[in-house]
Design goal:
Blueprint (H helix, E strand, L loop, with lengths): L6 H13 L2 H8 L3 H15 L4 E2 L6 E2 L1 H25 L7 E7 L10 H8 L4 E7 L1 H10 L4 E6 L6 E9 L1 E6 L9 E2 L8 E4 L6 H13 L5 E4 L4 H9 L4 E5 L10 E6 L7 E8 L5 H15 L3
Parallel strand pairs: 3-4, 3-5, 8-12, 9-10, 9-11
Antiparallel strand pairs: 1-2, 5-13, 6-13, 7-11, 7-12
């Protein structure tokens, strides 16, 4: 008879699945790597299925692992709710926590707080501006009620509703030989060094771009882009390399930088979407989702 799966194993599995690294997951869980590896191996043996593909340098979830991740998150949320119900009687919600991706210009959603104050005068809105992966992690942990995220992202277990699309544009030095052209293709940049983001910031979007690059045979020399956006702009302005930006970020002006339309901008574009837990039953969340969708559709 197989031993029962416990909640600790589920927490360990979720951490590895989200980090896609045993080392990072162990740091996040404040344990060492060997017991974490043993627990994941024991879990796979109990399930009789392989959850991770370890054949490459970076582990990935198998199809079974993807399916089990959604189930595991649901079980953890259910256990958390059950404990909360026994601890205290829940009070009517008067606060909502929302994450907004930093991948686009903040002004695109600057209206959310003032407009929500008019529409929901008794609701206290907490806004966190952070990368999409952190918002997805917070949603699954119950630390956020909903989020505006960038796509593609790994969103198993969440309901996702697309709001709009952000094509990419090219940012380059005003002294670049192509600076006078109105529109460029990726292959016009093949001799340039490209500032590009680290895969761990959003593996799903990184892999999407890699497929586009491979299909178009675009293989530029790459440099990891700095996390500080203004430092990146300064480096591009000085001619150290070029970068691809979501179209809305053209509003951030910098001396010596020019932005150009990109022929493949829509293929590499970022989808902007609302995300919330698939089993979300809060009437407040439902009303706020409706409010956001209507405001975006109306061009707020």
């Amino acid at each position: 008879m197989r031993e029962a799966i416990n909640l600790r194993q589920l927490h360990y599995f979720i951490a590895v699945a989200e980090e896609l690294s045993f080392r990072r997951a162990a740091l996040r869980l404040c344990i060492t790597q060997p017991p974490l590896s043993r627990q994941i191996k024991a879990l796979e043996e109990q399930l009789g299925a392989q959850l991770f593909d370890r054949s490459f340098r970076q582990i990935t979830l198998t199809d079974t692992g993807e399916h089990f991740l959604a189930q595991a998150r649901g079980l953890i949320r259910h256990s958390d709710r059950m404990i909360t119900q026994f601890r205290s009687q829940p009070e009517p919600r008067s606060e909502l926590e929302i994450g907004i991706t930093t991948v686009i210009d903040a002004s695109l959603f600057a209206w959310v707080e003032p407009e929500s104050a008019k529409h929901f005068p008794n609701l206290r809105l907490q806004v966190k501006r952070q990368i999409s992966m952190q918002s997805i992690r917070d949603l699954n942990a119950g630390a956020l009620d909903l989020a505006i995220i960038g796509l593609p992202s790994r969103t198993a277990g969440l309901t996702v509703e697309r709001l709009l699309d952000e094509p990419l544009v090219v940012g380059m030095s005003a002294r670049h030989p192509a600076a006078n052209r109105h529109r460029l293709a990726l292959n016009d940049l093949s001799r340039d060094k490209l500032y590009w983001f680290d895969r761990k910031r959003n593996p799903a979007y990184y892999e999407h771009c890699e497929r586009v690059f491979t299909r178009l045979r675009f293989k530029p020399a790459r440099m990891i882009e700095p996390s500080d956006y203004h430092i990146l702009l300064g480096l591009v302005a000085e001619g150290h390399g070029v970068a691809l930006f979501p179209r809305s970020l053209q509003s951030i002006k910098h001396s010596g930088i020019v932005y150009k339309e990109l022929l493949e901008g829509e293929q590499l574009g970022i989808g902007i979407a609302l995300a919330y837990r698939a089993d979300e039953s809060s009437e407040t969340v439902a009303k706020f989702v409706k409010f956001l969708k209507e405001r975006v559709a109306a061009g707020s």
